[in-house]
């Protein structure tokens, strides 16, 4: 065996003693010595020979001692093979990790950008999820979709196209396909799987196995992809026991938590979300902490196993990357939420500075672990080279892999695709600084209401924005949102996706976000890509989902109308080849929306102009009131409508609507218009009143009303045609006080109020449990007493309620409570004008409401079962007829309002949803109904008939809007607003 190679320091040690200065050393190489006489040599004396031999021995012995000392120093400076080494298995495991990391590092930028598609680009094992599902649910039925208008999610639209699905993938796309073509393509795929060592063995099919669906030209698209959802970690119906989105007790940074450990695969929202065409969702933790933990991408199709593992997008994929990279996802948050959650309790962090430091400290801790791993690998590889199979004996510890740091280290090694909840530019900038300081990638900023202000930077950093189309005024961070933001991002080349943040917005209607964006001017193909191919690519799965291409997962949606059209909803949803929603493909299809008419002319020089007299002419349809649609023109003098129709003589300033339509100004009811600007900023709110003050007559919304001042909420309202607000005070108790009707476009209070005392508002149900009435039974007891024995105070609004002077508006949802209310009021106070508000379960007692003549205000008209009281919600589009159709069919007068204040500008869109249902008998809905639910129906419910609000009538104050078509549907723009003498042309939403 070759001697061990000594380190360089030991090899340079001297082996001979140094020569004494001034003393010559005897040569030792010759056995004889030269005589003093020239040319004569003499033998050395024996004593000399002995002395020289002794000297050689001494030198050799000295060298041996020095060598032993050097070896001892070497062994003492190295780990002892008998002491602190690790097992050979642990050493080899660490080396394998090192090798995998090194291999990944060589190519990680390309893999990250390409999304980790399979190395062969051919998916040798097909759709791995389908193999798992087949074992649990049985094989999917091969499907041939014929005569489709194919939207591929990448901007291409193909007419008269056929799509063949089998074994969980799209096996063929073309024209004129037959069941035989499906068989050939499916069996060719089966042959490929049979040749793969790991591929699932699937059955060969025959033409008799193929289901043929003729969609008659309807749009067929890829399944939608939602890259921000909390379904499963906050299950319906919103029980506290199911709320698992935020881990607040562990401090502000918890990157090591995993959503997969909390997701409830039995959450009914998963199936509902799929019914809207959303086939893939990224489930991520909430934003209460700076680092919430890892998310999980799932398919919204529950397997027979009832296991979250089988929901996972990565289910069935091989560990070696043959089926593509096994991506992980992570959620972080900055800004208001973490600082409010911790600072509000006097804990750290309580500021953006604290947020940033806490993040950097956690990143630095993880980076230290990453560096320790790299150092371990370098040392271990060197020892392996030097000591071969005994190298493990010289390693002091295993590969350093701290569990609490593992997730962040994986992020830094490009194994995780990071999603960051950030709204403001300063927060976005902070995270980009962290990105560069600690060298990790960011996939998307979520919510990102100010991302459009940094569009060029995001494009340069290849960071996308996951955004709402128009949801904004719920907190300061959202205040600078713009509906034009997506267009700015697109112009800069920055990618963006629309997301739900379910249950904040109902993910079942994710397509609604794209529809609204198109309404505000975004290109249709970009809008549709923002819910299909873009989020798929951002999740690292753009090579298998988000587009209709051969070889992609069989995630397919058949739409009842083009998906960006008002009210579009799936007729069939297919996930991994399995049909999860199936409505009849009736032969009749919704009518194509009418084209827009030319813009109004002329355009006023000033946004809002006071005109003593004006005329709007060339109107193709004037929806004046129920059952009356006129044509011609409208004249207004001193703010009062003086003539409507074809025989009117123009007066004053002339505005030509060029064939557009006019409808009454919309009424925004039961949302805090004029009482609040930013929901989370108490300083912008009137505040909450107590029940007793409200019942004693001290709480009137007119006293808290504020208008003008450049507030965004009221501007949202009037620029979208909501010219009147009917609002009551805020309050979570039994009574909220008396509402006021006012002009949303007013700049001064003296010009604002239209009716000072409109109705008394109370609440029955869980939200009304408070000190005054801690139970629902006590709420009814108090109401019974108030109806039979009114308060002694002459100022109590119940005096006017009992006399029938103002309505009693009751917010409640449970059909049991609705029935009790009807009986209580009819038997104790028959003069009371009862109005039902909220009313999720009203459709179940529609006949009782109709018999009692009780109008209903649905809030919201498209509900979700997000609380126990809302479990009666009938989700839109899953079963028909709709709630509105049932109520209308029974003869109930129905109005609509929205839930969130900033959704007021979508009020006319919500009305449009009511026009697209499949009515039964008298339940058929039309455009006149859609106008009515947000105008005259609300006016009648609140007793505003004498004001003329909600109608366009001669002799009444002007309150109308003119549009370039419609009147309901996306794309139709307001051309003129007539608000008394105040006229506006082409108002633009910010």
Automatic annotation (TrEMBL):
Signal peptide: none annotated. Residues 1-42 are annotated as: Disordered. The chain crosses the membrane at residues 57-75. Keywords: Membrane, Transmembrane, Transmembrane helix. GO terms for cellular component: cytoplasm. Pfam families: Amidohydro_1. GO terms for biological process: purine nucleobase catabolic process. Residues 1-11 have a biased composition (Basic and acidic residues). Residues 220-563 form the Amidohydrolase-related domain. One of its GO terms (molecular function) is allantoinase activity. Residues 21-33 have a biased composition (Low complexity). PANTHER family: ALLANTOINASE, AMIDOHYDROLASE 3 DOMAIN-CONTAINING PROTEIN. This is Amidohydrolase-related domain-containing protein. It comes from Rhizoclosmatium globosum. The lineage of its organism: Eukaryota, Fungi, Fungi incertae sedis, Chytridiomycota, Chytridiomycota incertae sedis.
